[in-house]
Design goal:
The complex is a heterodimer. Chain A is mainly alpha-helical. Helix content of chain A is about 75%, strand content about 0%. Chain B has a two-stranded antiparallel ribbon with strand order 1-2. Classes of the chains: A mainly alpha, B mainly alpha.
Chain lengths: ~300, ~90
């Protein structure tokens, strides 16, 4: 019995061995990838450390950013980052959801395909091109309304356009997974198309939609180039949509070129705060999206 | 009535997004296309970028892409296979 098993198993066991080697090799690459990520985080921590060593961490939550005099208050820039992202989310979420609903319920098939291609195109445009467009087309219009033009509002508008594809593509994938039976059932009950969408399809997909919005928020928070080009970059609290602001990402990009010593460490601290925020948002996004399969 | 309104809002949003995208692409193409020529792609910049072309910049972009891909592709593929088949 045992010998029989042995003869049957033998051709497989060599394959098992190859599988084993391959598995170990692939696992090593996976571990290396994770290690690289950890090393980046450790590096940011290490570079930011002098600020925590020489200052009270509470000083970071003040509004005075005078890095050359050792004042690293990042609160106004943090508020600016959050305001720009929140504005972009508020603007892009309804538009993105409308795009998804249009694609899946209203558009004829050929138009839906065209629309999907257009959104993919929008997703592929480099951020610096968004910034260039914002600076040469959008900012002059805002200047006419109220100078200086480079402002919180300009950043919100450009950023909303940039995260629209993220919301559309991610929530579109979720909405496509809502069983057609549910919608057919709603139609059989005599519900109008609007009620089918708002009352059945969207509630069934709402976790995924929230996940998509969180993912877009993480992107918005981390976006640098386009925002830097149109936001005006004055360190101040976001009080008026027509006044310039400076976001945390832009702060790093603007000052890294000449920063040394403690100033440089201060920039790494802003990087640390940003990384933490983005990690939390991405984690929340995968958490909300994961569970729930319809059947 | 509200149904009509909803349909209108959806179409309005899509037309809005489409026209902004067209505006942006149009801006870039209209302002860019007139300067695009074979010599622009082939020449080096002169006078600190005020004249000449973008050949070295194009080349370095390609080289950066090549380096990034040659690192990311093997690692990305290997990790994807491991995640899908073994983990």
């Amino acid at each position: 019995m045992i010998s029989l098993k042995h003869t049957i198993m033998s051709p497989f066991s060599s394959a098992d061995k190859v599988d084993d080697y391959l598995s170990r090799f692939l696992m090593t690459t996976a571990i290396i990838t994770v290690l690289i990520l950890l090393m980046i985080l450790v590096f940011i921590f290490k570079e930011a450390w002098p600020v925590f060593e020489e200052h009270d961490w509470k000083q970071l939550l003040k509004e005075s950013w005078y890095p050359l005099e050792g004042q690293f208050g990042m609160l106004s820039m943090l508020w600016a980052s959050l305001a720009v992202s929140a504005g972009a989310i508020l603007l892009a979420t309804p538009l993105g959801l409308a795009s998804v609903i249009f694609e899946q319920f209203y558009a004829p098939r050929w138009l839906a395909t065209c629309h999907r291609l257009m959104i993919a195109l929008l997703a592929g445009i480099p951020s610096v091109v968004f910034g260039l467009w914002g600076l040469t087309a959008l900012v002059p219009i805002l200047t006419k309304i109220q100078p200086p033009g480079t402002s919180l509002l300009a950043a919100v508008l450009v950023l909303a356009l940039m995260i629209l594809p993220t919301i559309t593509l991610a929530s579109g994938a979720v909405l496509a997974c809502v069983p057609r039976d549910l919608i057919a059932g709603a139609a059989a009950l005599g519900m109008s198309q609007k009620s089918q969408i708002l009352g059945v399809a969207l509630p069934a997909a709402y976790r995924g939609i929230i996940g998509a919005v969180l993912l877009a928020a993480a992107r918005a928070l981390g976006e640098t180039m386009a925002v830097l080009m149109v936001a005006g970059n004055v360190v101040q609290n976001p009080s008026d949509p027509f006044k310039p602001v400076r976001v945390l990402t832009a702060n790093i990009a603007l000052e890294m070129g000449y920063a040394t010593g403690l100033h440089r460490a201060g920039l790494f601290t802003s990087g640390l705060i940003l990384t933490a925020l983005v990690l939390i948002l991405s984690w929340l996004s995968t958490r909300t999206t994961r569970v729930r399969t319809h059947d | 009535m509200t149904d009509r309104l909803f349909t209108f809002i959806i179409w309005f949003a899509v037309v809005l997004v489409t026209s902004v995208l067209c505006w942006m692409l149009g801006e870039v193409i209209l302002k860019g296309l007139s300067h695009l020529s074979w010599s622009f792609l082939r020449d080096a910049p002169r006078q600190a970028g005020r004249a000449g072309g973008i050949a070295p910049i194009l080349l370095s972009t390609g080289l950066i892409l090549a380096v990034a891909l040659s690192v990311a592709l093997p690692f990305g593929l290997a990790v994807a296979v491991w995640l899908a088949e073994f983990s």
